[in-house]
Amino acid sequence: MYIRYLLIFLGLMVLMDTRDAAGASFEELVEQSQFVFKGTVTKLNAATLPQIRATASTIVVKVDEVVHAPPATMEDYRGKEVTVLLERPGTVRTGEQFVFFTRSWMLGSSIAVREVGRTEPESDVSITRRRVAEAHATVADNKLQNRLTDAELVVAGRVSAVRPAPENIRRGSVSEHDPDWWEAVIQIESVLKGQINEPSLVVLFPSSRDVMWESAPKFREGEEGTWLLRRERMRGLPPTHEYFTALNPRDFHSKDQIDRIKRLVR
User: Fold this and answer.
1) What is the DSSP letter of 21?
2) What is the pLDDT of residues 211-265, one digit of tens each?
3) Which is nearest to 119 in space by CA: 99, 104, 103, 101?
């Protein structure tokens, strides 16, 4: 009986090790990484930048194919060697080829990246590119879905006017990171979520380019799209007075995204 339980326990341990070795899902790897490339390990305990001390965690990899990269960064590194800081030292051998999921680390005469994870290469790199593109789309849809779930009102329409917010709002919000509130008047064309009986509404937005507000959408007259709105209680106004806001980059989408938003709302 003891031996049987021991074997069961050992079997569970093997299963847990297998799950740990598998690591994150493909979508999670894509979400966490900036640079994805197919590469061949050329050197162990080595680095391509003099400021990096070579250890068991650093390897040199030749970039065979760039799968995904921000514009004007690693897309020019095909055929070149880069430094990879391994997530787990001692898990690769010279000559092995992988698809590396990485984030930026150092940039100089060469480039160094931190490994998020890796997978075995597909027979055709175009398959990997398609999977990465699909994963990016899935991740983006999931994040948008969360914003839609939290939104009180989702409307499609057009900005008919933009103007400074009332003085008591602007005066009440003065701080080190002054948002410089403005109002956008939205003429509503359709309501995708929630209820509103008026043909238009006012959205408060920060016109400031301060670091705290630089990613918040800024609106201009004539702009068309879809707004994911929440109510905010503003300093300087009675507790009963609230404004609609769209402060997250995912809270406004151009007109051509309306079918996608309708699909996710449903």
Assistant:
1) H
2) 999 999 999 999 999 999 999 876 555 555 678 999 999 999 999 999 999 999 9
3) 99
- Nearest-angstrom CA–CA distance, 192 and 149: 12
pLDDT tens readout for residues 24-83? 899 999 999 999 999 999 999 999 999 999 999 999 999 999 999 987 666 678 899 999
Q: Which fold has domain 2-139?
A: OB fold (Dihydrolipoamide Acetyltransferase, E2P) (2.40.50)
Predicted TM-score (pTM) of this structure:
0.72
* Domain definitions of the chain by residue range: 2-139, 151-265
Q: Is the dihedral of CA 217, 249, 141, 191 positive or negative?
A: negative
The answer to whether the 2-139 and 151-265 domains have the same CATH topology is: yes
User: Contact 227/155 with Cβ under 8 angstroms?
Assistant: yes
CATH C-level class of 151-265: mainly beta
